[in-house]
Specification:
Shape: elongated
Largest sheet: 4 strands, antiparallel
CATH superfamily of the largest domain: Band 7 domain
Number of helices: 5
Low-confidence stretches: 2-13
Radius of gyration: 32 Å
Number of domains: 2
Mean pLDDT: 77
Order of helices and strands: EEHHHEEEHHE
């Protein structure tokens, strides 16, 4: 084989190397892969962290900075437990189903608890009437539970307005 035949193009970089010297081509390919898959992400993460530390205004938009609402995290959270609720659901065929709920209310305003106690009979009445109209199929899956949460939250906030409950938390849900 002549010297001209022994020289060919390298697959990775387009440089000319001897045909018998494949080890250097593989080593270059591994080095490039290492740079591409390890070095570049590290560089980008370091750059994003640098932007965040420097307080760059666009860093928050990219999800690199501190949250936009630090005051929301600093507010105290108050929980108020409601009495246990046990209702029979609307009939679904011949069988009677029961729903047992233990609910906590979450609010960031401590004065809401002062409003909840005197309004508890009305709150329990509204919850009982609504829950008795549900069928077992209405409570299936996470979508059913989410609808239940949002409906109960809407109803309680109508009763205690202008005060407001932030979240309904289920401590126990049993459908039998």
């Amino acid at each position: 084989m002549s010297r001209a035949e022994a020289i060919s193009d390298d697959e990775d970089g387009g440089e000319l190397v001897a045909a018998g010297d494949t080890r250097t081509g593989r080593a270059r390919g591994r080095a490039r892969s290492l740079i591409l898959y390890v070095g570049l992400p590290l560089l980008l993460m370091g750059g994003g962290g640098g932007l965040w530390l420097a307080g760059w205004p666009g860093a928050e938009l990219l999800g690199l900075g501190p949250s936009a609402e630090p005051s929301a995290q600093a507010r105290p959270v108050v929980f108020h437990d409601l009495p246990e609720i046990l209702v029979n659901l609307s009939r679904d065929g011949d069988r009677i189903h029961y729903l047992k709920l233990k609910v906590s209310l979450e609010t960031s305003d401590p004065s809401v608890s002062e409003v909840l106690d005197p309004m508890m009979p009305r709150i329990m009445d509204v919850f009982q009437v609504y829950l008795r109209e549900l069928r077992p199929g209405d409570l299936e899956g996470s979508a059913g539970i989410y609808r239940l949460k949002s409906e109960l939250l809407r109803r309680i906030n109508l009763i205690i307005e202008p005060k407001e409950v932030d979240r309904i938390l289920f401590r126990e849900i049993i459908i039998q």
